Amino acid sequence: MSAGNESIGGTDDTNEPLASGPVLSAPDMEAVDLLIEHELDLARATAARPELAARLSAASRLFSHLDAYPTEAPDAALADATMARIEQEERAKEARMRIDAPRGGSLTSGRWPDLWAVACVALIVVGVGIPLANWMNTRAAEAACADNLRAVGGGIARYVNDHGSMPQQASLMPDLSRLERWTDMDNNRHLTALTDGKYVEQRCLCCPNDRTGEGYAYQVPGKTALLAWRAGARVPVVADRSPVIELTRAGLPIGHCVVNSPDHDGLGQNALFTDVSVDFVRSTTLMVPALDGMPRHLENIYLPMSDAERGTLEEGLDKPSEWILIDVFLLN
């Protein structure tokens, strides 16, 4: 083994000449590894492998030359400059992460760029985040309400199949000629026939947004309710709470009642149709197909039709005795 002008020489236990030149032989490499393994302690390495004594000695002499290799003394100024640079970067990082209070009580001396950034983020949250959250809540409520009405539709279908009639309670069938006000009828209690017969759960009879708990508006029993259901005509049979009742209780004029149900913030109402489909309709006025002698016509689903209004759009809550019994009229 050569290193500069010196090489590991001599013979091993086989009296063969040791390798010389720039390439280490296998025994030379083993001697170097053994010496390094024993932390360059020649005595310990030799004690471990006496047969490599000559090679270990030569390797040890070569390693000793490293101690004599000239080196420059460490530059204290360079070390100090490096530490100062590191400290400067750390202080700058801390400053970027901190919003300093204004000095001397003056607001104008604060870190306005940081404050403006916080204000902008807050405005984005208020201007976009809150409306988006409200929209998502509205859509979720509409979907939950629609699911309720689909369950009611399935319950009505099974009830009609079992009983041959629309859900109704005999005790809630007043003499309309003697009934003074529609608000005295509690019409949607007819739907309790579905819960009594285990056709639907009680929670499905009320929109999740209905804070009054009055429940859905249901078709007032008349001549055409069952006919429409069986004929496949697409006619509303259950919908969100009637706005007419709210207006009547508040003493407000009803007119043609273009106000939507209060269950969805006046945006519209979910309606269950006789084909067991559910739609979110944006108006209380819908086109009703021809049925039982009545031609196709517009109707307000929350108002009753009298003989005087036949063929025209209903206006106001007529007396119960004036109802013609064959129009769409959904009542709580």
Task: Set down the secondary structure blueprint.
Elements: E1 2-3, E2 6-7, H1 26-37, H2 42-48, H3 53-67, H4 76-96, H5 112-163, H6 192-196, E3 217-219, H7 225-231, E4 236-239, H8 243-249, E5 269-273, E6 278-281, E7 285-288, E8 297-300, E9 330-331
Antiparallel strand pairs: 1-2, 3-4, 3-9, 4-5, 5-6, 7-8
Helix pairs in contact: 1-2, 1-3
Structure report:
The chain has 332 residues and is of the alpha+beta class. It folds into two domains: 17-65, no CATH class; 132-331, no CATH class. 38% of the residues lie in helices and 9% in strands. The chain contains eight helices and nine strands. The chain has helices at 26-37, 42-48, 53-67, 76-96, 112-163, 192-196, 225-231, 243-249, and strands spanning 2-3, 6-7, 217-219, 236-239, 269-273, 278-281, 285-288, 297-300, 330-331. It has a five-stranded antiparallel sheet, with helices on one face. A two-stranded antiparallel sheet has the order 1-2. A two-stranded antiparallel sheet has the order 7-8. α1 (26-37) crosses α3 (53-67). The termini are far apart. Residues 1-14 have low confidence and may be disordered.
- Number of domain modules: 2
| Sequence of strands across the biggest β-sheet | 6-5-4-3-9
Structural class: alpha+beta
- Quick check: average pLDDT? 80
* Biggest β-sheet strands, sense, barrel: 5 strands, antiparallel
Count of DSSP-assigned helices = 8
Number of strands: 9
Can you give the helix content as a percent range?
25-40%
Short account of what is shown:
This protein has 8 helices and 9 strands.
